[in-house]
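We treat protein structure as text, and this decision shapes the records that our systems exchange. We quote a single record here, exactly as it is kept in our systems:
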Amino acid sequence: MGRRFLRWLGGAVAAIAAAVGLLLAVARLHDGPLGPFSGGDFRSGSEAAVPSDWSFASAARTFELELPPGAGRSITAGFAVLDGKLYVPSLFARQKRWPSLVLADPRVRIRLEGKIYALRAARVEDPGTLQRVGPLIQERYGEHGVFGDRDWVFALTPR
């Protein structure tokens, strides 16, 4: 009886692992992220001129962030708007892949309300800016709002 149960349990774990693997593979082929899973490059949406003031975007909770060209990857990202500029936090940045991709090649695109904007991402290291944007991120997402070595913030600007 014990061996039979262990075989059944092993089979169940293998089936779940295969299903998760298939879901991740399908998500990478998807037009943008698929819920919490990374997706592929954007294939839909219309290119739009980058606005000088992003305050209108504050009504949205997240946007889709396409990583540098050739990465074939996009994520759903939270953001904050400070003085009309966009900022994207990355908690535990060194443990994620996307921040290092953006440091290597800062060209990104975001998709917000069906419009695609070509931008450049730069890590924010200015303590004054981090002190100001941190509370906005905390207010929007309940995060701690203190950024530095562990948690990074990227400013998105026109290319």
User: Anything to note?
Assistant: The radius of gyration is 19 Å.
